[in-house]
Each structure stands twice: as C-alpha cells, then as structure tokens.
Specification:
By secondary structure, the protein is of the alpha/beta class. Helices cover about 25% and strands about 25% of the residues. It contains eleven helices and 24 strands.
C-alpha cells in the first residue's frame, strides 16, 4: 500500500492502485503466470490430516530469520478499523489501535501487527516497544514516497536502525514495497532500487540484528517483478500484497467476481518460495463497493475461505499472512471505493474467525526452528512422523494407509472459486460440501472391509457438471472396537 506519513497521505494509494490502467495490467499479469499456476484451471486435490515426517517438515522451510518450521503467522493492519475504540497515541501523535479488542472480536490472538512509516519520519519507539512487550512481531512498511534519492547512509537511517535495535522487538522491515507499481515513486529504476534496498539491508544487518528484511512487490504487474529483486543475500522474506475487489476502476463492466485469490498469489510463490519464506504482507477483500452500492459479504466469505483454506495445502511456504482490516470509505471517503473491514459486518467477522481457527495459523512468535538432522536422507527416521509438530493437512498419497477416524480435506476449483466438492469411496458418495468452510470431513476407515479401496474427490461446477477429479487407492485397517461408520464435517 502506498503510504507516507499520515491518514491523508493514504488517499493517493486508493486513487492510483485501484483505478486507471489496472484492469489492463491485470490481464497482462495473469497472462504471464507460469503454466503451473495459470488461472481458469480446474483442480481437485485430496488431503489427509496427519503429522508430517521430518523430511516433509524440512521441505517446508528455508531457515530464514523468524521462520516457523510449519504453520503460518497471523498478522493484521487494524489502525483504520472504525469499530475499534481502544487507541494508542505514539510519541509523534499518530494513532494506533490496541490489538486486544480486535483479537476478542475475531476469537484469536495475532502474532504480528503492522503500520506504515514514511521515510524520513522517526520510529515510534514507544509503540514498537509496546507491541514487542505484548509478544507481537512488529511489521513496518517503510515507504520512501519522496523518492529513492533520499535513502542514504546518513544520520537518519543509522538512527532508525539504532532505534529498532533499542526497541528489543522482533521486527519485519518491509522497505519500499510495491515497487513494480506505477503508483509508487520508486518504480522506474530497478537498478537504483536494488542498490537502495541493499543499502538499507546492510545498515540493518550491522546495527539492528533483530530486523528481518522483507522484499514485497504488488501482485501485478508481474512482468517487472524480477528486475527489482535485490538478491538472496539481502532478503530474508519475500512478500506480496494482494486484494480481491468486486470491481476494477469503479466500473460495473470491470467486475472481478471470478478472480481467484490463489491466482493472485501464485506468481510470487512459484518464483521465490524455493529459496525464501513467503509473507502475504497485505490481503483484503471487498464486502461493500461504491460501484454498485450493495453489501457483498458473500463475496468476502468465498474469497477469504478459499485463500485461507489454500494456504496450508497449496502454499505451505507462506509463513505469514496479514489482513488489511480497514474501511477505506471512512478514512479516504473522497477517493476510495471499497470496504475491507472485518469487524463491521457480522458475516465477514464470522468468516474470518472461522478461517483462522485452525492451529495451523499461529497466534504468537515461536522459537526459531533448528535444522532437522538427516531430514533429506532416505533413513527411517526421516520418514517417521515428527512428534513435536501438530497434525496438518498433507497431500493424500497413493497407497496411503488409513485407520479409524480419518480427517479428509481438499482443495478444489471449477476453475472459479464457486465449487461443490463430493467425496466417494469405491464409487459411493460419502460427503458433499458447497463452501470451503465445509470441505473437511471425518470418515471412519473402519466402515469398509480392510484392504484396498478407491477414494475419489470430485469438483463440480455450479450447474452440476464435473470440472475435475482425483482418485487414489488407499489401504484401510479395522477400526478399534466401538467405532461407528461416519462421514461428517468437523
């Protein structure tokens, strides 16, 4: 998000990024997606909840600073949530929201909160220290909106680093994000951008070892993103900002009903996740737009559930997601067109509460995970379940052994995110669900005779036609005495 110093300066972001040539840029960006992540591709993928093996855990991590071995940190931007009333005014008289009421409304603590800081302004040390004292990561979007020429190895940058070190907080510094976007003042010189990012990195490394550097493009246009990458040695995490809106350019003809959130994430994930943990630095979904003037909590429900269900399944190296919980109509009413706020609509609030309820989404910073010894070897230890990792959704394997109550789940699309899923055992339907919150079900593997069976997932279009399917063979064992046959949602 383009932000400099205060509330008024946020307005230019909503004028620029969501209007103009955005629709054309979106088409170009989606055309540039790699073949494995192209939109409009139907999918049906089976998962079973189990403990991952040491080798599987090792495959999910890069051992970057503050990276959890498994799971995804929850984060949020809440300073422009109109429902929250417990404010904290920092030393520069900038207002922030106390996270406690937000966490009560959404039913779960969050591990991270972020704020915007215009380059040249001092660090709000009291706010950073307070967040750190509450066992939160501090995520700072440092925006040089007056241009990169002001970013120098000078007294300001050194003091900023020293203050971050003095805070004793665990900080993610997102410097000059969305550099691939024409709405920023640092998008037209990739070489200069790379130099300035590396300068900030070098000063933070020397003076503020508690800072992890985050490099974060916007989801589109994709074709310029690699030119701005400053190098693996200067980046701790790779981020991406993405938004699902109902209309582009505030035009009814530019509707975005079928823009799939996974398509917005896939380019950055596919290009960088093999080397770096991925952070969704900002995610927001419209539930009210001035374009048509009607509430759309159904749109928000579908997009939020689809993305949060996809993260542990399709994107296991996304290790943090930050929700942009703000009503832009209230704090930039003359130019903004979308309400992304979670708490001002009961359906959206309940949806978000459900989406983050899984223990996979982490509520507090974890100790950095040490490397797993011999994890990549074919030894039996590397293939055994890891006892200190909670069960998580893992891709169903051909020949998977199932016993007793088994938690099945899936990822499916038709290719849109309007999809009905149907589970079958040996051709007989055992469960059907029409929304992502109901994709999980419990099935008693002891309800069929021991031995080899077929397990099928079908993804159905709104008209009932089959869009995609997956069939795997599984091996079942007898349930323990007293177990009853079942297939039910969680």
């Amino acid at each position: 998000m383009r932000v400099t110093n205060d509330k008024a300066q946020l307005q230019s972001f909503f004028l620029g990024k969501r209007s103009g040539a955005l629709a054309a840029l979106l088409l170009l960006a989606l055309a540039a997606l790699p073949s494995g992540a192209r939109p409009h591709r139907a999918q049906a993928i089976l998962y079973v909840t189990r403990r991952p093996t040491a080798a599987e855990v090792a495959h999910r991590q890069t051992h970057a600073k503050y990276e959890p071995a498994v799971g995804c940190y929850l984060g949020a931007y809440i300073d422009y949530d109109p429902i929250l009333r417990h404010r904290f005014r920092d030393q520069d008289r900038i207002t922030h929201q106390d996270p406690t009421p937000f966490e009560q409304l959404v039913g779960k603590p969050h591990a991270m909160y972020f704020f915007y800081l215009g380059y040249g302004r001092p660090l709000p040390l009291d706010w950073v220290r307070w967040l750190g004292s509450q066992n939160k990561f501090v995520h700072i979007a440092l925006e040089p909106n007056n241009g990169l020429s002001r970013v120098k190895d000078d007294a300001y940058l050194r003091k900023l680093a020293d203050d971050m070190a003095r805070s004793n907080a665990r900080i993610f510094l997102r410097f000059a994000s969305e550099m691939n976007g024409f709405w920023t003042n640092y998008h037209n010189d990739p070489a200069e951008y790379r130099r300035k990012f590396r300068l900030v990195h070098d000063i933070m490394r020397r003076r503020a070892p508690n800072v992890a550097m985050v490099w974060c493009p916007y989801m589109i246009p994709t074709w310029g993103i690699p030119n701005y990458y400053p190098g693996d040695d200067a980046v701790d995490w790779v981020g991406v900002n993405l938004y699902n809106v109902t209309y582009h350019d505030n035009k009814l003809s530019e509707h975005c009903e079928n823009e799939h959130p996974c398509d917005l994430l896939s380019y950055v994930y596919n290009r960088y996740s093999a080397r770096k943990p991925i952070m969704v630095c900002e995610y927001g979904v419209t539930h009210y737009s001035l374009c048509d003037g009607r509430p759309r909590p159904d749109f928000a429900l579908r997009k939020i559930l689809t993305l949060y269900e996809a993260l542990p399944r399709l994107f296991p190296r996304v290790k943090c997601i930050n929700y942009f919980d703000g009503d832009t109509l209230r704090f930039a009413a003359d130019r903004a067109t979308n309400d992304y706020c979670i708490t001002d609509d009961p359906v959206v609030a309940a949806t978000y509460r459900y989406a983050i309820a899984s223990p996979y989404f982490l509520s507090a910073p974890l100790p950095e995970a040490p490397p797993i010894r011999n994890a990549h070897s074919p030894t039996p230890d590397a293939q055994r379940p890891t006892p200190n990792i909670l069960p998580i959704p893992m891709p169903m394997r051909e020949g998977e052994r199932l016993r007793g109550q088994v938690r099945l789940s899936c990822f499916a699309r038709t290719p849109s995110d309007v999809v009905t899923v149907r589970y079958k055992v040996d051709g007989y339907r055992i469960y059907t669900a029409k929304t992502p919150d109901l994709w999980e079900c419990l099935w008693d593997a002891g309800s069929v005779r021991p031995g080899r069976h077929t397990l099928t997932l079908e993804a159905l279009r709104p008209d009932g036609r089959l869009a995609a399917s997956q069939t795997l063979h599984v091996l079942t064992s007898q349930s323990r005495p007293g177990r009853q046959s079942s297939a039910k949602l969680r």
